[in-house]
Amino acid sequence: MADETPVPVPRGVVEFILDNIDETGVCSFDRGFAIGQRVRLISGPFAEQLGQLVRLDSNGRVRVLIEIMGGSVPALLSSTTVALACWYLVTVIMTG
After folding, report:
1. From the first residue on, what is the mean pLDDT of each consecutive set of 10 residues in the chain (96 residues)?
2. Contact 37, 53 (CB under 8 A)
3. Which among 24, 30, 38, 53 would be 20 to 30 A from 68, CA to CA?
């Protein structure tokens, strides 16, 4: 929006957001974690790395296989430090 002209939202972004609105009208993206999903680390020393979710626990921790140097390294992390890889891409698209 360098010239203040609105940019169209890519196809699927609005639908993705609407699909994640709960019964109170709040948009929540942490409901979708499931074993095997691709995630992106959003904070910490491995921020921006991709991985695969291999375990969730009731204490808000997740085990992720982080893809580093051609291999996978297991890491136990807070669920607040990861985002679904697809959601991360939506936020990048929306914020430019």
Report:
1. 76 75 69 80 87 86 89 89 68 54
2. yes
3. 30
In the chain, the amino acid numbered 60 is: G
Q: List, as one string, the DSSP characters of the chain.
A: -TTS---PPPTTHHHHHHHTB-TTS-B-SGGG--TT-EEEE-SSTTTT-EEEEEEE-TTSEEEEEEEETTEEEEEEEEGGGEEEHHHHHHHHHHH-
Whether the model pTM is above 0.70: no
Best CA proximity match to 80, nearest among 49, 48, 44? 44
C-alpha span between 58 and 33 (Å, rounded): 13
* Domain boundaries defined on the chain: 13-95
